[in-house]
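Lab notes, practical 5.
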Amino acid sequence: MSSNKQQARSFAASAMPAYQPESSGHIAPHGGRLVDLMVREKDYKRALVDSCHHKQECSDRNACDVELLTVGGFSPLEGFLNKEAYEHVVEHMRLPGSNLLMGLPVVMDTNSEAIREGQRVLLTYKGQDLAVMEVESKWLPNKALETKACYGTTSLEHPGTLMVATERGKYYLGGKIFGLDLPQRVFPCATPAHVRADLPTDTDVVAFQCRNPVHRAHYELFTRALHAPNVRPGAVCLVHPTCGPTQDDDIPGIVRYHTYEVLKREIDNPNIRWAYLPYSMHMAGPREAIQHMIIRKNYGCTHFIVGRDMAGSKSSLSGEDFYGMYDAQEFAIKHAPELGMQAVPSLDVVYTEEAGYVTAAEAKAQGLHVKKLSGTKFRQMLRGGEDIPEWFAFKSVVGVLREHAQHKSG
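Output from the prediction step:
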């Protein structure tokens, strides 16, 4: 990969970063500009690839990060954080220089001893050339410090800490990337520019984040959020599930995608928009709530629904929660003004025999009879072929999950 190196260097020296201009009537991206790192000139692509000194295969998580960097989901980042920026984000939750909020560090990891600072690395994924990375920094991270600051714990009982300790490589690499291609996925992930183009202008856009199939209670949450006190009339909701890696026991992304697609057709509500996010969950609680808000701001959202114990996780041994029930909500509300967004705390809705879905406070005040179905019991009923009550889950969603369960058992 040594030919055309001089040509690639001259391109890199003269080319300015390309940005997607702000859409009229939409919220400005984080930092003011929507980053677009995709290289579109064929000769430039070839020169970049030929100038690479090394090749590295991305993990599923790496590929999500590369995609979000390339399309501007992580705006204003133009590459993986260098050592200085990484340490600043870990300690202060802010980017150095601009002082902009950044919930979690975005880094590329490697076990390669051969990669050196100043070199270029071709990032590949399942047979695709995704990007070329200019290595500005290579360092041995203090992972204990990182996990303590970002996840609040160094315990391997936390899934995020376990991921950092066991999945990520020995070294971190930081530096600018040049996008060559987006991962070929079995489900489409619209870019921030495309999502913004489909959103109405001068309208509140309320983002709903989830990593599980949408059930009736979720539907109640995001439809009621459109009428929250801090949401203007005529708002739309963007249901924007993460379809990248999550916890080991979560439902696979492709299955979740199919549940969303059938539900989108069943609901057929013009005020409910759908898009899919190639994001890798960290289960980092409060700090991940900030990361989600930044990403959704880049996708054009003005409001963000913050669930109770959002992005929370439990100890793999004791089952105890790592974060308080309202820690993420309070953290999001605190930082929302600086982001130019508004947090919408999710309502605690319950199903009652007498009045259907109401808030828990209303059910208590009126003495209504609340019906409950745990996730564990729901999965048992799915596997056993039992009828799932329609107050709990949509028939279309249940059909997809049951088909998946039967296929898995078969």
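Observations recorded by the TA: The first strand starts at residue 18 and ends at 20. The chain has two domains: 5-179, 192-409.
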